[in-house]
Amino acid sequence: MESRIDIGFLDGRQKKVLGWVDSLFKDKTRKGSNEPYVLHCIRVARILFSWSKRKEEKKILVTAGLLHDVVEDVPSITISDIINFLTKVGYYASEIARIVEILLAVTKIFTKEAYPNIDRKERTSLEINRMKNEIGLCKLVKLADVYDNLDGLEKTGDFAKTYIFEQYEKIKVCSGIDEIADEQVKQKYQETLNKIFTNF
């Protein structure tokens, strides 16, 4: 893992979480590439490490960043499994409660599998409306996820044109928590938007 991407920002417990996440995503790659999916989780965690200012908050956000896609993308893993693992590697109950709150907030509810009769546009709208009511840390994790998902989006073909505007709506809902985060995400969005429509 060290040879692929820097993980020096992780503490001992977080490295154990990363090892678990790596094993869960071992056969999964990023859309439109052969890049191991776990690298996305690391980047989201690293973005949150750079955005968060308070030590205790940083611990929560970085761990949530590593785990943010597990419930949604690994059907065999439940919130109970995550709680058990975090307890096993030394997280306190108060920390676990905050991490789980974030994971539940950022995990999609209105999926195609759960709502096959609702089209993508409406499902996305329902998710965005749900996110409006979440606490700031949840929104910050979602922003970090959006930020990394924008990277290389222009290489995904026609999908990029739909996805980029969905991300704009998420950015609007999740902004206002941290000025630096807002500025970086909005700049990344504009750069990606320009790349997409230069290619078409």
Keywords summarizing the entry:
200 residues; Hypothetical protein af1432
What topology emerges from the helices and strands here?
Blueprint: H1 12-24, H2 38-51, H3 55-67, H4 70-73, H5 79-88, H6 93-106, H7 120-131, H8 136-150, H9 159-174, H10 179-199
Helix pairs in contact: 1-3, 2-3, 2-8, 3-6, 5-6, 6-8, 7-9, 8-9, 8-10, 9-10
Give an overview in words:
With 200 residues, the protein is mainly α. The chain has a single domain, classed as Hypothetical protein af1432. Helices cover 66% and strands 0% of the residues. It has helices at residues 12-24, 38-51, 55-67, 70-73, 79-88, 93-106, 120-131, 136-150, 159-174, 179-199. Helix 9 (159-174) packs antiparallel against helix 10 (179-199). It is globular and about 45 Å long. It starts with 11 loop residues before the first helix and ends with a helix. The model has no long low-confidence stretch (mean pLDDT 93).
